[in-house]
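Recall the central idea of this unit: under ordinary conditions, the amino acid sequence of a chain determines the structure it adopts. In this exercise we apply that idea directly, starting from the sequence alone.
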Amino acid sequence: GLAIARSMLGAVQGVANPKFVRASGSTPKRVSRGRTAVRAMATPNDPSSQSNYPVSKVTHCDFDLTVDFEKKSVGGTAVLTATVGPDAAADTLVLDTRDLVIESCSVDGVEAAFELQSDPHPVMGTALTITLPGSRAPGSTFSVAVAYRTTPESSGLQWLRPEQTAGGKHPYLFSQFQAIHARSFFPCQDAPAAKMTYKARVTAPAPLVALMSAVPGESPESLPVADGMRTFTFEQKVPIPPYLLALAVGNLEARDIGPRSRVWSEPETVAAGEYEFAETEEFLQAAENVAGPYVWGRYDLLLLPPSFPYGGMENPCLTFVTPTLLAGDRSQAHVVAHEIAHSWSGNLVTNETWESFWLNEGFTVFIERKIMHAMYGKAVFDFSAIGGLMELKETVDRLGADHPHTALTPVLEGGVDPDDVFSKVPYEKGFAFLVYLEHVSSGRADADADAANGHPAFGEFLRAHFENNKFGCVTAAGFRASYEAAFPDAAKKVDWETWLHKPGMPPVDVGAYYDDALARASADLAKKWHLCDVLGMGAQDRPEGASASDLEGFTAAQIDHFLLSLLEYRGGSHPLSLPVIRALEELYSLSNSKNSEIACKWLQLRLGAGDTEAFEPTAKALAAAGRMKFLRPLYRSLRRSGKDGEAFALKTFEETRAMYHPIAEKMVAADLGV
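Accordingly, the structure predicted from this sequence is:
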């Protein structure tokens, strides 16, 4: 089956003694606590980092780390190679950290003094200032070694007990560093623009396997075991931002699914992953036709335990994916097409700051849908785009059309957490903007718009965008300048200010550019059910002539769109009546679906109707997987379903929050007001 509808998608520094940071085997080194060791403010170029990038730029890191499951800590050394910027000399290197124990620092092999910010920022953490012996000239290069370890509070790592895994016998560790959680794993310039290469040695308990967002060295089977431990090696030769560094350690095995791809998972789920992601090589080839050569070598997948908070994470060479994609019919495998598209958008060419996140995700959705068009045709592209536009409308309606987070370029000054701004907006509004720019560049009349097939000159422009900016970063201003140079007449027609900076829905109805033929049947069916109960009183529990045959021939994506359309009609303050919900279940057996998208939307509709029998299935779903795309709407729906629902939501959260990733736990807690 095809996937058509789009998925998705107070920090105190942890030191043993609050007044000292101890270097291993050395005299305690006093850290200034009476004053702020470094400024508690953002870098000049990035409001989400306290590092002194780009005064000095870290370009490479060598890791030598050991994983300690008992202490829930990863520790060792990170040796950072940095270059002083061209404009001025440097006498310090300032790095982002959060919840790390810093043990010692040295510069070019000589022990160096360092200071930790005395008043940690609640979002950005604790800046680490390392004094460089002697002023370093512009353009000079130096090496800084930091001995450190993470703490159990490090937000970028999740430690799973054996009983939280599929096998139930071994512990598991995985990371999630987007947006600004890499600083909780190692001292770094935690900004998207601060790209670096890296090498790593990771020592972990046998028989567990370590994986990273890099090309691995020897296979696990060939590694010697010493004192119950094995050391894995990795190398990432392509510069990446810190948020794309990734680590996973667990009882893992692999199955090849293509000439440059394999799927890794626990043994209990690897066969399901092998089946579900069998189209990976086809996606890769289609993406190369859209965006240019694939530069990363390997494209492997890691099927994670259920607590992974996202649908997928585009870690280079090793995409992380959620087990909620295992529908058994490949109906959710298009998430892999999205993560593959990130190999160009986000990974190869990166948004300079999180304020320009749409330059990452909007481009990625655009490439993803072009991949789907190449493989499955125009109808699939248009169907997916229509669904995405509906999801964008739901987001804008929920947040409010004037909410600043509905702007394509939100303002993050003042310590706004990028996680708090995360929504469909950069994905779908960004995609809509690119669709509009391609249409305007074509010179066609609106009546002749064809978003799926696009415009050859824009396709060439897109490939040039990736080629000209590869290994680097882009800004909205830079992208605009490139577009104006390529399409000067078209650029004059674009209301750049409104598109980029005004909140709300796009200023142009790009929905008119899509053919709704594939969506029409599911949308029409939803409208019939809506109209039969327009007052929400249940006087008529089903449309005239409704039968189980209504869904015959529907793909999983069309059923999902049917429910999405019902939510658009009745997902707010005017829900369907309970008799209608029961008729829908009687005819269509929606509760039996194994598709996570369908299951989530159906539970939302049931909860909206006041169906208290949906409480327990919702709790079961909330305990089964920690993907925020499902957690947050289900908790919100529970909370809105009366006092009993709100109490049940709070009770369920308290019972299940320990299995969620820290990012998901934080966001759900905010949704519930706890």
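Residues 378-399 form the longest helix (22 residues).
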